[in-house]
Write a structure and sequence with these properties.
The protein is of the alpha/beta class and 325 residues long. It is built from nine helices and 15 strands. The chain starts with 12 loop residues before the first strand and ends with a helix.
Length: 325
């Protein structure tokens, strides 16, 4: 990890995003092995969907065997990594998934000091229901507020637009290797300067590009910058405001595009107010009807949506992720 954090205790959740094949997963697989071998501490290994373990369970320890991080006696089962194939063997790494978080119950795991959330941004952008809430729920179940324990969320750089960043209203700032949000105990590392398994100008990289597959090295492959735009002069407001988590957002139309801005100050008397979350509805605030949700979704899917700043974008995207279950 690169420098940029003032204190180890300043953060709990550390997002690590970068190119393919730079060793993100292997780094933490080795760390999980060392935690058990030297300190007797377990690791909770997390993926978005339980089925992901079934697809790659046979090769989970392949690099650990090859590099000598784990002895050959260690065995991978459907629910984790064990010291041996004995029925009473100790579990070293426990497997879990966001998609089954509501089924995860039980006490804290005092000997679990690390959660590794591998591939938190799937390339197909198909996220489990309530995934951001699921991450928080699992963190509470497993770690129970112990600040000495850490969550490392790893991924190729596929999209800055994802439900985890959207819910937390965070994004990696351009030009900074590490973006720190101490107020919410979170940091994001942009993995610059790491060795790439496929050099950018190699024939293999050009072949991948021709097939439409990026290496996901940096934010230049993400269209975030193109979605941030100033409200054009003469834009016409829609007759409603959207209320979500204490913020008001207004839509505007201009030349076939929908622009979203945060509304500050006194609320307009002639505008309806729709709450994205039914729990936030009340006097003067209506539950958002389905046709408004569809309108927002259509504007996004047809590349017709623009946002005044990343925070507004994440407010709107968080609404959509909540409905797309």
């Amino acid at each position: 990890m690169q420098k940029g954090l003032q204190s180890w205790d300043q953060w709990i959740l550390y997002y690590m995003i970068g190119g393919r094949g730079i060793g993100k997963t292997d780094l933490f697989l080795r760390a999980a092995c060392l935690l058990w071998q030297r300190f007797g501490c377990r690791t909770y290994w997390l993926r978005n969907k339980q089925v992901e373990y079934q697809e790659g369970i046979g090769s989970f320890l392949a690099d650990a065997y090859r590099h000598g991080w784990a002895p050959e006696e260690w065995q991978t089962r459907i629910d984790g990594v064990y010291e041996s194939d004995d029925r009473e063997a100790e579990r070293i790494i426990e497997f879990g998934s966001i998609s089954t978080f509501s089924n995860r119950r039980g006490g804290a795991r005092p000997d679990t000091l690390m959660v590794v959330f591998d591939e938190f941004m799937p390339e197909d952008e198909r996220y489990p229901k309530d995934c951001a809430k699921g991450l928080g729920s699992l963190a509470m179940t497993v770690l129970r507020g112990r600040t000495g324990a850490k969550i490392f969320a790893l991924s190729n750089w596929t999209r800055v637009k994802n439900p985890y960043f959207a819910r937390m209203r965070i994004y990696p700032k351009a030009g900074q290797p590490v973006t720190v949000h101490p107020e919410i105990g979170t940091a994001i590392e942009r993995c610059t300067g790491y060795n790439q398994c496929v050099p950018d100008n190699s024939p293999f990289a050009r072949m991948m590009g021709a097939l439409g597959v990026g290496q996901y090295v940096d934010e230049l492959e993400d269209p975030l910058a193109g979605l941030i735009a100033k409200l054009p002069k003469g834009a016409k407001p829609y007759p409603f405001l959207i209320y979500s988590h204490g913020a008001y957002v207004r839509e505007w139309s201009s030349h076939g595009r929908v622009y979203y801005t945060e509304w500050r100050g006194q609320l307009p008397k002639d505008a309806l107010i729709f709450a994205a979350n039914p729990d936030e509805a009340g006097p003067g605030v209506l539950v958002m009807p389905n046709h408004i949700v569809k309108h927002i979704k259509d504007s996004r899917d047809m590349d017709g949506a623009r946002f005044s700043d990343p925070n507004v974008m994440f407010i709107v995207l968080d609404i959509l992720y909540s409905y797309e279950r």
